[in-house]
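It would be a great kindness if you could assist me with a short task in structural biology. The matter concerns a single protein, recorded as an amino acid sequence and a row of backbone structure tokens. Kindly check, if you would, that the fold set down in the tokens agrees with what the sequence suggests. Thank you for your consideration; the sequence and its tokens are set out here:
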Amino acid sequence: MMSSDFIFANEPLEPAKEDKPSSRTKWKLLIVDDEKEVHAVTRLALMDVVFEDAGLEFISAHSLAEAKQQIAQHPDLAIALLDVVMETDDAGLQVANYIRHDCNNRSTRIILRTGQPGQAPERAVVMNYDINDYKAKTELTSQKLFTSVMSALRSYRDIMQVERQRQRLQRRLDKMNDLLKHNYPQAWQAVQQQQQEKDNP
């Protein structure tokens, strides 16, 4: 059973803000944990989160295999909240590796949550796995979870903005290359030859 310490500590309630409905696609947040209660309290703690006029879309997985399936179906995950110990002592770490290496996904923000920090010491995990945050469930209040999620959303937004700009620049370069190839074939061949010589000195 999950430790009752993870049921978020009592905190002063803040007045709810009235957010206008938004047509923007919600930020996808994957919860990976074998305890159903963790999914419930996480959704409860974050259900009112709104970032840049968009709320959260919660996606759940209760095992390594289910997590891989959800990740494959949702390559645009903003955040993955991963429990470390599930069916194995390192199932959550395997999910992190799957995101980063198998899917080659460097954008999704990965937050590890563990109820057994001794099984996965923070220093070793941070050094050896490409994660963005590490939290012990026993000290994770709803406010701390909110803070971590908001910080992760800002990072994800910035990463995606840079990626969109890179794609726009690449499209412009491709158009310029096509124009050069069709209108100035000799110049285009010279540029290609120079690039090959640079790549293979």
About this structure: The beta strands are 27-32, 56-61, 79-83, 109-114, 133-136. The first helix runs from residue 36 to 46.
